[in-house]
Amino acid sequence: MNVDTFKDLLLEMAQQRAVEGLLDHVTQRIGDESDTALFRIWLLREGDRCGECNKEEACRSRPRCLHLATSAGKSLVDGTSWKGIGGSFRRFPVGSRKVGRIAASGEPMEVVPIDPDADWVADPEWIRREKIVSFGGQPLVFRGEVLGVLALFSRSRFVESTLKWLRMVADHLAAALVNARSFEEIESLRRRVEIENDYLRREVDEQRASDGLVSEGPAMKAILRKIAQVAPTDANILLTGESGTGKEVVAREIHARSRRSAQAMVKVNCAAVPRDLFESEFFGHAKGAFTGADRDRVGLFQVADRGTLFLDEVGEIPLELQGKLLRVLQEREFRRVGEGQERSVDVRVIAASNRDLPAEVEAGRFRQDLYYRLQVFPFEIPPLRERPEDIGALAAHFLRLSQKGLKRRGLALTPADIELLQAYHWPGNCRELQNVIERAAITAQGDELNLEVPGGAPRQRTGTAVRIAAASASSLRILTEDEVREFERDNTLRALERSSWRIYGTGSASEALHLPPTTLLSRIKRMGLSRRGAEPSGN
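and the corresponding structure tokens:
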């Protein structure tokens, strides 16, 4: 073994800032030496294959074991490379065989020369065939703690200086390993802070549009009582309801009242996550895990650790990826893409969907076990048309926010404005109401709001629509539930007929109604609407 190689290696190790790079560098330098047959490094970690390990007798208590981290060498016989980290010796219980005994004792072991027929030799023919004459094993010890073991099988006879240099490499490698782990942790924390800051900036912007839970009527007061019950717990929550009903506002209220409120609530729109980036987005990835992964990435679950993860539109997650989400919810552990290490996470999950998830389960598009895992404590947020008593308070709230954003004052809603708003059925729910109020504030002349309710322009109306228009213009009486449902049915059917029953795309009924296509399809099914018995068109 070239002494200059050892000297250079000691200096080079101190320059490494990543564990993987450090181990690869040491292994390559020693593995490239002409007399090296096999060089390997094992690190102590928690067991990851206890259920299939064939060394159970030597590891009854199942503590940490030695994991093969890197390997180098080449066969003299056929030139086979031994860079892989699989095989029978990829795991060693502490105390098992010579490598495990080195870790247990913290003492080095040298065998010079090797007797191929000795009891400790696992493969005598390999020793003979590869002309191996020396073995040196050194514990990686830092401040009294064993971190792992390095082992060298050599085709040359070790001399005393070789063993001393090998000991120095082990000592320096242990210190460099601790430093590299510290650098990686600092870098990981730095990136996490950057990501959290980005989320917090977005939260501040979004908070302006959803500042607090406005409730006047019994429906939302019942929601508030449920929030008070579940917020202090860590139970997973499923929020259902039409698009725009305020599911995210409810999620924020739950988070704000929980013990996790000091941490971030991280929001992810599941429908916007590309299928091939799902694992990377949710769990992160290691550098080099795939093309373009030029550095480690922290996933959303790790960003939300000790906080809340809000999975909006959870019903949009592809079926084949739902099992990966289920596993982290059950085990509270995950692996980054391209990394074997299990990471623990403490996250409270709040999911939301405007889909009929039980129907999706029955149709085989959503996993039943994931559905039950999410809906430990379900909430159904009623649509705005079912709580008209909240419309006035919500409109006033949105007007305050709009004036603040526009930096103007003096605008106010009149009783006639509120009655006009209450007479409309709001298919887009709170989001549509907010848009109407903001548009009225932008176009206001002086202190007079220019309030334009969708469909409020004069046009032909029949049935209940006529009665609603008349109510808006004169008596403004309270409508019965049957009248509201009849109007909603007439309005939906009119939108479908005008769009030739197109559900998706430009000029579709869903666009005219300001509804997601999935919500419109559910409404068509619920109302029993049909086009002379034909199915709605998706074109």
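(Above: one complete record from the training split.) Residues 111 and 376 are 60 Å apart (CA to CA).
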